[in-house]
């Protein structure tokens, strides 16, 4: 059902979100309650991953996907407050205290609303710096907003924040060590961003007019551009290297049979929730359309950019070259929808 390669399905670095919020609270000399509330606000959006099993059953429910409703400017705060409320239940706190040494008890009053909101907004901002950013206006719009600067997870910040996570939960080492590591985390995040900014500028200069997105390696970037013949050229490039690491071209529309009636069929297919869910996680959309003997249209949609990624990594599913198949009957109704 999932049409993205395995290296893209991982969640963003949760620990970095939490400790960046704490670092900012400390830098502003905020009280413990404010820092903890910001940490809850920064943590809560990624708990949308708990709803992932629903998408395996109903993939058309795009507004439950990662970085949608919980990362929305409209629903992010209510979700974070609800998550915080659940964590503050006596039974949850008892279990937490048996497992960890750090106290996360927080009074549920109006004074925590603004710090929680600050944590949510910080989380959204950090995710907007990556690829496949947040759907800021979910559930009313499935458009993602991203600056394509960082990858989902960068190794250096993850290494520092993971160590911080362990030291903090079990209160290992002196408090000064944890404070210094928080400062180190901020420096590492900024340094990683600076490195990626330099290499991205090199790639953009070498690939004028192309869309550029990062990979886990700060030196390599995926790029794509539309060609005059209606195809999409997708390549993997390395900053400072003249030759491309990978290059393929995909037609954006391939029609088998007479094209008569294709446009109305596409309008119906592309107004479905399934198509919206597909485009939510697609970089580009290509279509293989076949006119069947009974007059219906078989519409196979796929993402040529993700197809290039999977071909490069060797993970392509040879039996499902399309990511979403919608069959439109001759009378204009949706006959079937399949996520191969």
Range of helix content? 40-55%
Strand content: 15-25%
Can you give the mean pLDDT?
Answer: 92
Radius of gyration: 23 Å
Number of strands: 9
* Major sheet characteristics: 5 strands, mixed
Question: How many domains, in number, for the residues?
Answer: 3
The SS-based structural class is alpha+beta
Outline, from the CA principal axes?
Answer: globular
Distance between the termini: 6 Å
Number of helix segments? 11
Quaternary organization: single chain
Order of adjacent strands in the largest pleated sheet: 5-6-7-8-9
Low-confidence stretches: 1-12
Order of helices and strands: HHHHHHHHEEEEEHHEEHEE
General description of the model:
By secondary structure, the protein is α+β, with helices and mostly antiparallel strands. The protein folds into three domains: 6-147, no CATH class; 209-248; 252-338, no CATH class. Helix content is 42%, strand content 15%. Helix 1 (14-27) packs antiparallel against helix 2 (32-43) and helix 4 (76-87) crosses helix 6.
């Amino acid at each position: 059902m999932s049409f993205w390669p395995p290296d893209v399905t991982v969640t963003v670095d949760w620990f970095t979100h939490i400790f960046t919020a704490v670092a900012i609270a400390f830098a502003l000399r905020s009280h413990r309650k404010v820092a903890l509330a910001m940490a809850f606000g920064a943590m809560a959006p990624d708990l949308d991953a708990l709803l992932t099993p629903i998408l395996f059953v109903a993939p058309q429910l795009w507004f439950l996907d990662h970085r949608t409703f919980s990362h929305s400017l409209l629903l992010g705060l209510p979700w974070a407050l609800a998550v915080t409320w659940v964590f503050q239940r006596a039974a949850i706190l008892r279990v937490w205290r048996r497992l960890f040494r750090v106290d996360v008890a927080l009074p549920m009053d109006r004074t925590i609303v603004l710090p929680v909101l600050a944590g949510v907004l910080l989380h959204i901002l950090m995710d907007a710096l990556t690829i496949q950013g947040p759907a800021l206006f979910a559930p009313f719009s499935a458009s993602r907003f991203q600056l394509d600067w960082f990858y989902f997870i960068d190794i250096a910040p993850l290494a520092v924040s993971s160590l911080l996570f362990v030291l903090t939960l079990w209160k290992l080492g002196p408090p000064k060590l944890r404070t210094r590591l928080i400062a180190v985390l901020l420096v590492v995040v900024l340094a990683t961003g600076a490195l990626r900014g330099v290499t991205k500028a090199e790639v953009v200069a070498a690939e004028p007019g192309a869309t550029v997105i990062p990979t886990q390696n700060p030196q390599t970037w995926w790029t794509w551009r539309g060609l005059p013949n209606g195809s999409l050229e997708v390549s993997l490039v390395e900053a400072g290297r003249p030759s491309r690491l990978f290059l393929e071209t995909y037609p954006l529309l391939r029609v088998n049979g007479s094209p008569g009636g294709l446009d109305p069929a596409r309008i119906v297919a592309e107004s479905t929730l399934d198509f919206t869910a597909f485009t939510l996680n697609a970089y580009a959309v290509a279509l293989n359309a076949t006119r069947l003997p009974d007059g219906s249209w078989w519409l196979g949609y796929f993402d040529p950019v993700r197809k290039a990624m999977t071909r490069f990594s060797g993970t392509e599913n040879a039996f499902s070259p399309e990511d979403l198949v919608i069959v439109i009957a001759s009378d204009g109704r949706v006959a079937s929808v399949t996520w191969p």
